[in-house]
Design goal:
The protein has 10 helices and 24 strands. By secondary structure, the chain is α+β, with helices and mostly antiparallel strands. The chain folds into 2 domains: 234 residues, PmbA/TldD superfamily (PmbA/TldD fold, 2-Layer Sandwich); 237 residues, no CATH class.
Length: 482
């Protein structure tokens, strides 16, 4: 896709639906007809497809279009929100009138939107969006993953593979005259396998997601690697022993371990929780909140990453934001509303699930920076503990930072060496407390390529996270062995 994303999105909406700058200005004027601090239009057209392959048969296919416009009017931190699922002027005007009901003052002023100020950044150029590729091309990748998993070991008795993708076009226009637009590709490739041996059953799973087209799979053996790694995880767990219980030193592996960082720390650094004083990080800018070895950032500018955006869902450019630097809290992730409580800061973190939802501060790609140690340094320093590699579900309390996470791949560390795989591992702790107990950080940073989706207030958005391997001096492990 060599054409400028913003111009492509604008041209699409104008040619397909007649949505031009005059229509946008008229709708914004209606939205501010009863007053308000600002109004905003979010136009979305999302093309989707999905293939599910189970027991070497295509079990389900689907595809469709999701489209509409969401209209927001803000008065302080109060929001009037309405949407229309069609682009007829009458329907959109009705939605604008509905959103306007939040305001009760004199009419506000909507400035003409200005296309001359469109951003030209493109973090995810693709040759051909995967949603436009033939189903047979995707099915070939699915079969490669399935075959590789089954060939890994005769104990693999079941494999389920899913390939889903989308191409989303958006325009965001606001009453201060700002106009932004983007075309956002995304694919999500997942495989889950079941292994059975000697009466034991275990599961392995892998996911891969990026803002690429199918050209991503033209180099390397990425589909086969997905299948082999899922099978390897299942067979590892087949041979695992029961996990120990108690407080143990834990090496959190590079990459996927950052799900703990995302959940147990990241949400607490979102601006809305902090101006409302709901986070344990509220009013703590400039204070020490973690080990001096920890620097944490949220970075929406990584090329092709699942969590990256040319513009956020309020039309602001994505940014690199330092959240914690050397253990000191430096800032929060802000959208337009939360930023007004923090000297007008807007960090490119306004995100929403779709045109049916209003934006809120959310993460993009959240990660911890490298340290100076090697991975071997971390392991050798542990007389008895755990090495955790991959994770399942978890629960987090935003107010306190308390969390519980299940671990889907983990190993014992004994006398400074990684030994037996273990199963039934749950990590129990408090996010800020865990960061304060980081005693070593390796230089092996990985950004997870998994298909992570972040949930908040009933909305899900694509994100990514990453970290180097870190040693935490003590985490409560809920296992089954003494």
């Amino acid at each position: 896709m060599t054409v400028d994303n913003s111009q492509a999105a604008l041209g699409f909406f104008q040619s397909r639906f007649g949505v031009d700058q005059k229509v946008m200005h008229d709708l914004l004027s209606v939205a501010l007809s009863r007053g308000g601090d600002f109004a905003e239009l979010y136009f979305e057209h999302r093309q989707t497809s999905m293939l599910q392959y189970e027991d070497q048969i295509v079990r389900q296919t689907s595809g469709g279009v999701i489209q509409g416009v969401g209209i927001r009017v803000a008065v302080g931190d109060s929001v009037g929100y309405a949407y229309s699922e069609d682009f007829t002027y009458e329907s959109m005007r009705h939605a604008a009138n509905t959103a306007a009901q939040i305001a009760q003052s004199s009419q506000g002023i909507a400035n003409p939107v200005d296309a001359a100020k469109l951003a030209n950044a493109n973090l995810y150029p693709v040759e051909k969006p995967s949603v436009d590729a033939r189903a047979l091309e995707k099915l070939e990748l699915i079969r490669q993953a399935d075959s590789a998993a089954r060939a890994y070991d005769p104990a693999i008795i079941k494999a389920t593979v899913l390939f889903s993708d989308q191409l989303k076009r958006v325009i965001i226009a606001s009453s201060d005259g700002r106009l932004a637009a983007d075309v956002q590709p995304l694919f999500d490739f997942r495989i889950s396998v079941i292994a059975e041996e000697d009466g034991k059953r275990e599961r392995g799973a892998m996911s891969l997601s990026a803002r690429y087209g199918l050209e991503y799979f033209e180099t390397g053996n990425r589909a086969e690697d997905m299948g082999r790694n899922a099978a390897r995880q299942a067979m590892t767990n087949i041979n695992a022993v029961d996990a120990p219980a108690g407080t143990l030193p834990v090496v959190l592996g590079a990459g996927n371990s950052a799900v703990l960082l995302h959940e147990a720390v990241g949400h607490g650094l979102e601006g809305d929780f902090n101006y409302k004083k709901l986070s344990n990080y509220s009013d703590r800018i400039g204070q020490k909140v973690a080990s001096e070895l920890c620097t944490v950032v949220d970075d929406g500018t990584i090329a092709h990453s699942r969590g990256s955006l040319n513009i956020d869902d309020e039309g602001n450019p994505a940014q690199y934001n330092t959240l914690i630097e050397g253990g000191i809290l430096r800032g929060y992730m802000q959208d337009r509303i939360s930023g007004t409580y923090f000297d007008g800061q807007i960090t490119g973190n306004g995100r929403r699930q779709s045109f049916r939802h209003y934006p809120m501060p959310r993460m993009t790609n959240t990660y911890m920076l490298n340290g100076d140690n090697t991975f071997d340094d971390l392991v050798k320093s542990v007389p008895r503990g755990l090495y955790c590699v991959d994770y399942g579900g978890g629960q987090v309390d935003i107010n306190s930072g308390d969390f519980v996470f299940s671990v889907t791949e983990a190993y014992l560390i004994e006398d400074g060496k990684i030994t037996s795989p273990v199963k039934g591992v749950n990590l129990i702790g408090n996010g800020p407390d865990i960061l304060s107990k980081v005693t070593m950080v390796a230089n092996d940073f990985q950004l997870s390529s998994g298909g992570w989706t972040c949930g908040k207030n009933g909305q899900g958005v694509p994100v990514s996270q990453g970290m180097p391997s870190v040693l935490v001096s003590g985490i409560t492990v809920g296992g089954t062995a003494a």
